[in-house]
Design a protein that fits this description.
Layout: E1 2-4, H1 10-21, E2 28-32, E3 44-47, H2 53-59, E4 65-68, H3 77-91, E5 95-101, H4 112-124, E6 128-134, H5 138-142, H6 145-151, E7 154-156, H7 168-180, E8 188-191, H8 199-210, E9 216-218, H9 221-230, H10 235-249, H11 259-264, H12 271-282
Parallel strand pairs: 1-2, 1-4, 2-3, 4-5, 5-6, 6-8, 7-9
Helix pairs in contact: 1-7, 2-3, 3-4, 8-12, 9-10
Length: 283
């Protein structure tokens, strides 16, 4: 049995879709805080809340391989992940796969500490493990497109940093491959897109696709945080987004090892393809 936590989230749904496409439907246990949100997944859904250890132990009964998708509540993730790891040990899970952060060992991104702490908890658990150090989702930047079109410019704080992003679907497919094959135990994968781009190049691609000049305006981290807060983002989220850009300017969102495309057996989704699909969806 393969368990997937965070199963009703954006990444979790895509992992389950990929597993089903590979013929694993009967093996999947979807674990979610609100199981009713997973009624459309077409697999067994069990309630498991990162904040409720007892619910996790119950949800993990019979699960042999578990995908722990990192929680979304920054600042609470280490204790939440500890709950899942401890529950997995108690329930007899033998192998754990975790969605970590690209270059987690040395990353200076604000998100990195909780990933490093979780990786150590996993290593100390006694279970075999695979670490999927996911790079930036292309969707993180595609989410800025509407604002850029409305404001006439793409704003950011990434300088000329190269961003080797990939789509959530690419990362989800890699997770499904690792969950279904026995050859990945003990492996640590640095996962990123085959191609990279600067935000200036992102803006140029956007301009090309919409037929309108959308320049990139680079800002300081503080300026960018201020702009994000002014359009309604919570301060903490604004800091994470701006911090990601600053990390990009230092090369922390870049990796050219092509481990992601090697795992999934095809090139990662290009920026132009992902952007075209996003624009068509929002049209």
């Amino acid at each position: 049995m393969i368990g997937v936590t965070g199963a009703t989230g954006n990444l979790g749904r895509l992992v389950i879709t990929s597993l089903k496409e590979k013929g694993a439907t009967e093996k999947i246990v979807a674990i979610a805080r609100s199981p009713e949100k997973g009624a459309d997944l077409g697999v067994e859904v069990r309630r498991g809340d990162y904040d409720e250890p007892a619910s996790l132990v119950q949800a993990l009964q019979g699960v042999e391989t578990l995908l722990l998708i990192s929680g979304s509540e920054v600042g609470k993730r280490t204790p939440q992940h500890r709950n899942v790891i401890n529950a997995a040990v108690e329930a007899g899970v033998s192998h754990l796969v975790y969605t970590s952060l690209l270059g987690a060992e040395h990353s200076t991104l604000s998100l990195a500490d909780e990933h490093r702490e979780t990786e150590q908890l996993i290593k100390d658990s006694g279970m075999t493990y695979t670490l999927l150090r996911n790079g930036w989702y292309t969707e993180n930047y595609l989410a800025l497109v509407d604002g850029a079109l409305a404001g006439g410019a793409l704003l950011g704080a990434a300088g000329d940093g190269q961003i080797a992003s990939a789509t959530r679907a690419d990362f989800a497919e890699a997770a499904s491959v690792v969950l279904l094959e026995d050859t990945h135990k003990g492996k640590v994968y640095e996962l990123a897109g085959d191609e990279s781009y600067t935000l200036t190049e992102f803006a140029a691609e956007l301009s090309k696709q919409v037929g309108k000049e959308i320049p990139y305006k680079d800002m300081s981290e503080a300026e960018y945080i201020s702009v994000l807060v002014s359009v309604g983002l919570p301060e903490g989220l604004a800091q994470v987004i701006a911090g990601g850009d600053v990390g990009a300017s230092k090369g922390e969102l870049f990796d050219d090892s092509k481990q992601l495309s090697s795992l999934i057996g095809r090139p990662t989704t290009s920026l132009s393809e992902a952007m075209r699909a996003a624009l068509a969806e929002s049209a």
